[in-house]
Sequence to fold (155 residues):
Amino acid sequence: MVAATLWSPADLLVTTILVAVGVCLWFVGWYSASDKLVEGDQVVSLNVAAAGIMLAGAGLVSWFLNGRRAIRSRRRLLIERRRAQLRTEQVPESVGAVHAASLAPRSYSPVLVAGPDLRRYHREDCPLAAGRDWPAAAREQHESAGRTPCGACLP
Fold:
C-alpha cells in the first residue's frame, strides 16, 4: 500500500523545526547586528544569521529530497505493477478452454505518443500518457529525437 502523502509526519516535524530554528537564528543575528555601528562588532551576529539561513535551507532541502524519494518509489511501484500485469495472463480456473481464447491478452494500441520536450515515448493507452493531447509519431521518429521507451507501457 502506498502512503497517501509524499511526506511523513516525521518529515514535517524535522522540516518545521529546522526552518523555525533557522529563521529564529537569522532574526536574532540580524537584530543583534543592526544595533552595532562598527563592522568588527557585527561579525559574530552576522555569522549567527548566516548559520540560521543555512539551517533553514537544510530543512527545505531535506523536505525536497524526501518528496523526490517518495515520488521515485511510487514510480517504481507503478512500473513494477504494470510489468507484472503484462507478464501474467490470468485465466480463472472456472473458465473452460473454449473461453480461454477470448481472455487472451488484449491488443494494445500501436500508436506511440510523446510530449515535445519529454525523454520517453509511450503507447497511446499508457497510464502515464492518459488524458494528454500528445502528437503521435513512428517509433523511428521518437528514437531519432533521442527518446527511449516508457518503462510502464513497454511500447
